[in-house]
Every structure is written in structure tokens, then in C-alpha cells.
Amino acid sequence: MNHSGEFGICRDESIVTARCRLRYPQESDIPHIWSASQTPNFNDGLRWSPPDDIAEMSEPFRAAQERWTSGEEYSWAIESRADRDFIGWISIRREPEEGVWSIGFWTHPTRQGQGFATECAAAMLEFGFSRLNASMITAAHAPWNTASGRVLQRIGMRCVRRNPTGFEKNREWVEELEYEIRPE
Asked: Helix H segments across the chain?
């Protein structure tokens, strides 16, 4: 069965960039996600905390697949086209405001600094505007995560506000810089 959400995005669909293929997440991705999450400070700017055990990854993984089926969020594993190695994760999520979607991404620590996030984030903007009919796409990052800020700026997003209560983690607010782009 090849479920698709409201926008008809099938699980066997992929997005191809110059060096990457974005595809529906598979159980075989869990060990890669686990290894990234175990890198010190990797999760600091992410809304999820590192799990204590790889078995804890199964439920969030299944939830991401359910959000795909409902059309609420499309999460893609990023792999190398050359060797199919796991590179990272990218998502586009529906926001409450009509026509607004947000993107989020991360690359495995062993693959950071090679331009993969920029390449895939640009593809995700194209997907959002062309396939999801987004009227605006947003993103956010912690101010100290300057690499994510550079990615967002490179793909044409502009910083529109500083939000001192971006998200709550470990009972504390994590400040975020918020970005947006419209289809111009």
C-alpha cells in the first residue's frame, strides 16, 4: 500500500537533487538517526532530546510516518545519490495558518559542512511552493546555530524576528530566529 496525504504525495516518491535523493523514511534509517543523536550537543538546537536507548526511536519514527499519511508533515531521509549513504533528515510541516508550511532539517555530524543542507533545503522550498501550494514557508533556528542561519539565507529566506520563547526544552525556553519566504 502506497499511502499519500491530501496532496497526493506517495511514499515511493522521491526528490532528486544534484547529489542527494530525498525519500520516505525506512526502518533502516533508525541506526543512523540514533548515531547522530548520540553525538555530544547534536540535539541542543532540536526540539527533541537524545534518546537513552535506540528502542526509543521507534515511536517517533512511526509518528513521522503517520503525519506523512495524514498530510500534516512530510519527512524525508536524505541519502547520497552516489552511494546511498544516509546524510540526514528534512521535513516540511503544515502550520495552523492557511497555506503556511515550515521546514526543518539536520545533517549527520559526519556529513556536516558539505553543502547538503543547503542543497536539500532549496529542493524542499521548491516542493513546498510547487506541490503543496504554500503561500509562505517558514523556518527557525537557535541563534547560536549559525550554520543553519547561513543555510536559510543561502536559499533566500529572510530573518523576520527573534522569538525568546521559540520552543521549550528541558523546562527552559530556547530562543529562535524566525525566517520566512514567499513564492516570488
From this structure: 30-37, 58-70, 116-130, 146-154
